[in-house]
Design brief:
Strand content of chain B: 5-15%
Oligomer: heterodimer
Number of strands of chain B: 13
Shape of chain B: elongated
Largest sheet of chain A: 2 strands, antiparallel
Largest interface: A-B, 80 and 81 residues
CATH architecture of chain A: Orthogonal Bundle
Order of helices and strands of chain B: HEEEEEEEEEHHHHHEEEHHHHEHHH
Distance between the termini of chain A: 54 Å
Number of helices of chain A: 14
Strand order of the largest sheet of chain A: 1-2
Number of strands of chain A: 2
Strand content of chain A: under 5%
Structural class of chain B: alpha+beta
Distance between the termini of chain B: 42 Å
CATH class of chain A: Mainly Alpha
Structural class of chain A: mainly alpha
Largest sheet of chain B: 5 strands, mixed
CATH topology of the largest domain in chain B: ABC transporter involved in vitamin B12 uptake, BtuC
Shape of chain A: globular
Chain lengths: 328, 480
């Protein structure tokens, strides 16, 4: 019984964890790419890594928090721009190939010895080096508060302040996405997703619209990367291909092309994922080592992603008609 | 009526997926049960860092800086979690991956009346070193934080100690000396790297030809092809080291099992989805899921370490001024023969010509009496078989591999296929040779770290897309 409540509380904690918020924001960006515009970005982790490095390095070099925040956003925008120029005029899968490659290359570059002076090489950047300006912003008094079974310190890495800030950013992003996708601009994006040529025939500059969507989603991704590293440290190997794939699972689970899909998907995904892992660790401890339980959980995520796409491509909240588009 | 049938077929598909997963799990479990292998996944409480092992060590000290036994610390991160109990001596744990880990002190195990100075520590594990996170536990108020440290270990041995795991996985093997020297290289070095480049290109071509064929016949850029390559390396490792097969038999087993996975995937997954008319966009996401599932399944079998396929030391052989291991030369020979066979198959046999016809225009091919469904099944089978062979030969040539092998290769395969022209088998061959040469020769540039040589692949990819999106051998069509 004790064991059970411990597992449940751990899973409940995931609902509001900063990492869950980071995934939600990354999925919001991806949703802008894939759900609304039909762009296949399989390198969201690359955008996140750019944001994480942008924020951390700027802070270490002495930038105040909001400047570092802007630099993180600019890093994502820059990457989107560079990747968009050669690919957005081509068929959809070229963007997929270029983004997945770019994400890996950024990770290699981050962990290589060439720029280790700034990026810390393979060991990355310790959290204490860049968390100061963020934690100083906290208006909360020191102490601890428990809400229900969840108890965290007010200030610090794994704190209420980190949670409030992260979910605040997510909330603002949801609001912005709501505003822009119900505008004429958002309708053009959906038009591009459904039939690019028809939109072109209406005299719209499809390339420019796609680029704007890619840049906006990239900014969301890079800010998500910043949120991701705020409670921990910048470790390039933490932000590889698996991260991208998890973000995809989160987005498709909640529902692509929906407003709350990414947020719901992220909360649900990490609740179940934690429940699954801790449950299996407790249940299978005699059968296999803890490490294999993690791998088994990852394997199940992969299978779950396949099943979602095969049986319910619109996810929980989505509309199947909106997900019937194809690469061209 | 149709609804009933749909439900029935949906149920069948669910069943198929479940069966596929179970089969995968049973296979992994069976492999785990094999002798001498389980030790790699065990968590020992004494870990010696070396070129392929990263250790994390929690240190619990009392006020006199003496070790405090009996305190539980949870090490978690990178999808790994382990609880260790401090003892009078040092305790360290081998972690599966480099990266950051969180050490969390269990306050329930701290002696009464004593206070830890922190509840958790962040450490970063690196190959060849022990990452230590210290907690000090004192009576009363908490002292100043001491933080965590990473110290290089003296026991780190030569190979791979300073290189990262990816570089080791595909590159720094027993033969190729890819260390940089200052200043521009001599001709002999350039020639040597040229030889390595041809080797890499040929082995890469085996995998990318399959990728290109799949793209040509189905329109899918399959992201799981990288894992199919790793699967080949894994099967080579398992069949030689665990089952004790001779190398030639291991090659056959690898090809057959890998081809069987492709055939099986087409039967339970791609075939039914094709008949349902699922958009290619969704199929590509399915390959992402498959890639993730395979990647974790592979990790379950071999863990996070790099594995040697051939346990004997490589025997260097010099041919035409290029020194590569004997195994590498043999691998190149095998690759050449197989590529020759593929070329013959595609141009001279009925099925091969039908494959190219389907690739060219599926509707027209179907109209001439070709069954595209059958062709696609053959393509999946052949492509995954070739990917497996490529993975095994790469692992043999480079000496060792890790589960990340395919991840890196996927990127280079895409670059090669795009360069050659997507969907053209011979373009993929040409593109692979170019990519192989560029990747190996880029290490000659002074000051270029070997881990960044794969970046040249991306550079080529972007340049090709900017200036010749249809690739070297592709046909110019208006795209967008």
């Amino acid at each position: 019984m004790d064991e059970l409540s411990r597992i449940l509380i751990q899973a409940l904690g995931q609902l509001i964890a900063p990492a869950t918020a980071a995934y939600a924001l990354a999925a919001i960006g991806l949703n802008l790419h894939f759900g609304y515009t039909g762009l296949l970005n399989i390198g969201q982790a690359g955008f996140m890594l750019m944001g994480a490095y942008g924020f951390a390095i700027a802070t270490i070099e002495g930038a105040p928090f909001w400047l570092a925040f802007l630099i993180a956003a600019a890093a994502g925008a820059l990457l989107a721009f560079v990747l968009g120029i050669p690919t957005l005029k081509l068929r959809g899968d070229y963007l997929a190939i270029v983004t997945i490659s770019a994400a890996e290359i950024i990770r290699f570059a981050g962990r290589s010895t060439l720029w280790a002076e700034y990026t810390g090489g393979a060991s990355g950047l310790a959290g204490t080096a860049y968390k100061g300006t963020f934690q100083d912003l906290s208006p909360l008094p020191d102490g601890r508060t428990a809400i229900g079974p969840l108890e965290y310190i007010h200030n610090g890495s794994d704190s209420w302040w980190t949670r409030i800030f992260a979910w605040g950013v997510v909330l603002i992003a949801v609001l912005l996405v709501w505003l822009i996708t119900r505008s004429p601009w958002g309708r053009v994006l959906k038009g591009i997703r459904e039939d690019e040529d028809a939109v072109r025939a209406l005299g719209k500059n499809v390339f420019s619209y796609k680029m704007q969507a890619l840049v906006l989603g990239g900014i969301a991704g890079s800010l998500a990367g910043m949120l991701f590293v705020l409670p921990i440290s910048v470790a390039p190997d933490n932000m590889g291909r698996t991260l991208t794939f998890f973000v995809w699972t989160v987005m498709l689970l909640g529902g692509a092309a929906t407003l709350f899909g990414p947020v719901l998907g992220s909360m649900l995904f990490f609740f179940v994922y934690m429940l699954l892992r801790t449950g299996m660790r407790a249940g299978l401890s005699d059968v296999m080592p803890a490490q294999n339980v993690e791998h088994l959980a990852g394997l199940m995520v992969g299978v779950a992603l396949m099943c979602i796409v095969i049986f319910r491509p619109q996810g929980i909240l989505g509309n199947k008609k909106e997900l019937a588009f194809d690469v061209r | 009526m149709t609804a009933d049938r749909q439900i029935a077929s949906a149920a069948r598909r669910i069943l198929a997926v479940v069966v596929a997963v179970l089969a995968g799990l049973t296979a992994s479990a069976a492999m785990l049960a094999a002798p001498a292998a389980a030790s790699t996944t065990d968590v020992a409480t004494d870990c010696t860092p070396d070129g392929t092992t990263a250790c994390v060590s929690p240190i619990v000290l009392d006020e006199n800086n003496e070790p405090l036994p009996g305190v539980d610390v949870t090490i978690s991160g990178q999808g790994f979690e382990e609880v260790v109990t401090s003892t009078d001596g040092p305790v360290s744990v081998a972690v599966p991956e480099v990266g950051s880990y969180t050490l969390t002190l269990d306050p329930a195990t701290v002696p009464d009346g004593m206070q830890p100075n922190a509840a958790e520590r962040q450490v970063t594990a690196q190959l060849g070193s022990t990452a230590r996170g210290a907690f000090s536990i004192t009576a009363g108020s908490a002292p100043a934080e001491t933080g965590s440290t990473t110290e290089p270990s003296e026991t780190a041995d030569g190979e791979g100690a300073s290189t990262d795991d990816e570089a080791e996985a595909s590159g720094i093997g027993a033969d190729g000396s890819t260390e940089n020297v200052s200043g521009w290289p001599a001709f002999s070095q350039v020639w040597q790297q040229f030889g390595s480049g041809i080797r890499f290109g040929l082995l890469l071509a085996l995998a990318s030809v399959g990728l290109s064929l799949i793209y040509g016949t189905t329109g899918i850029s399959t992201f799981s092809h990288g894992e199919q390559v790793t699967l080949g390396a894994l099967l080579g490792f398992v069949s030689i080291n665990w089952w004790g097969l001779p190398v030639w038999a291991a090659v056959l087993v690898t090809i057959i099992v890998c081809a069987a996975t492709g055939w099986f995937q087409d039967v339970v997954l791609w075939g039914p989805l094709r008949r349902r008319g699922t958009p290619v966009m969704q199929l590509m996401i399915v390959t992402i899921g498959l890639s993730m599932a395979l990647q974790y399944a592979i990790q379950m079998v071999i863990g996070g370490r790099s594995q040697r396929v051939l346990s004997s030391n490589a025997r260097p052989v010099e041919i035409a001024g290029v020194t590569l291991s004997a195994a590498s030369w043999l691998s190149m020979l095998v690759a050449l023969v197989v590529i020759g066979v593929i070329a013959w198959f595609l141009t001279r046999t009925r099925i091969g010509r039908a494959t190219r016809a389907v690739s060219d225009n599926p509707a027209l091919a179907a109209a001439t009496g070709i069954n595209p469904d059958r062709i696609v099944r053959i393509v999946w089978t052949v492509s995954t078989g070739l990917a497996g062979l490529s993975g095994m030969l790469l692992a043999i040539s480079f000496g060792s591999f890790t589960w990340t092998l395919g991840m890196i290769l996927l990127l280079l395969m895409f670059a090669a296929v795009t360069l050659g022209g997507m969907g053209t088998a011979f373009g993929a061959l040409a593109g692979s040779i170019v990519i192989g040469l560029v990747v190996e020769m880029s290490t000659l540039i002074p000051g270029m770290p070997s881990s960044l040589r794969y970046a040249s692949g991306l550079l080529i990819l972007i340049l090709v897309l900017l200036f010749r999106p249809q690739g070297l051998l592709g046909r110019a069509v208006r795209v967008g």
